[in-house]
């Protein structure tokens, strides 16, 4: 009976931790500077900023946002990042990519650049800038190997914070029409009762989903 109660309490504790780990807080801020709208033959390209020396926006996050914008009501045609960068070589490589809309304006005077923009049907360029940071690590886990077998015991936790900004450039007017920021935070846990069981807060996935939804509405002019 004691063994059953112990296992039951352990199961309840694990279920509680799962519910905590799956809970994240996500905030979205939108700053609009111009009117937007997009036609069915037009597309959006989403690019990650990678000029910083201490971090670069992960291509997986860029792909996640783009893929989600192609789904559901108001779906938008997205030009894959790598396909666009390769076709525009070397103009959108990290060292040469335009940092301001006036840089894009100068770039569009190049016939090869403007022709390829037209071929892709690009109406908006979205620059994603940000990263996910892990902070506030606490706890410890120890593992032992003995005659009766191996096991790990202990508890660890940490906080993940995904912070991303999306700047939207209108290729038609060569202006910055707005910025959308997302910040997702969540607590992750690693309880170890013989076997470590990671309970990870999906902050980056939540940030991707919320940012993609907001971007889709923004570009559509909702």
From TrEMBL:
User: What organism does this protein naturally occur in?
Assistant: SAR86 cluster bacterium
Signal peptide as annotated in the record: 1-23
Name of the protein: DUF4136 domain-containing protein
Key word Signal present: yes
Taxonomically, which superkingdom? Bacteria
Keyword annotations from UniProtKB, A to Z: Signal
């Amino acid at each position: 009976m004691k063994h059953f109660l112990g296992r039951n309490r352990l199961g309840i504790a694990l279920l509680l931790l799962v519910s905590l780990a799956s809970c994240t807080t996500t905030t979205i801020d939108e700053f609009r500077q111009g009117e937007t709208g997009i036609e069915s033959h037009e597309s959006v390209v989403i690019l990650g900023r990678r000029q910083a020396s201490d971090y670069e926006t992960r291509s997986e996050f860029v792909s996640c946002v783009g893929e989600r914008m192609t789904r559901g009501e108001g779906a938008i045609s997205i030009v894959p990042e790598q396909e666009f960068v390769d076709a525009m070589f070397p103009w959108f490589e990290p060292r040469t990519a335009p940092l301001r809309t006036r840089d894009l304006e100068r770039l569009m005077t190049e016939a090869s650049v403007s022709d390829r923009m037209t071929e892709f049907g690009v109406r908006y360029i979205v620059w994603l800038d940000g990263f996910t940071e892990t902070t506030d690590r606490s706890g410890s886990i120890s593992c032992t190997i003995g005659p009766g077998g191996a096991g790990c015991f202990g508890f660890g936790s940490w906080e993940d914070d995904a912070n991303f900004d999306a700047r939207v450039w209108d290729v038609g007017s060569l202006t910055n029409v707005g910025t959308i920021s997302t910040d997702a935070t969540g607590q992750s846990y690693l309880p170890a009762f013989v076997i470590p069981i990671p309970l990870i807060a999906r902050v980056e996935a939540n940030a991707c989903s919320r940012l993609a939804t907001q971007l889709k509405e923004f570009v559509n002019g909702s």
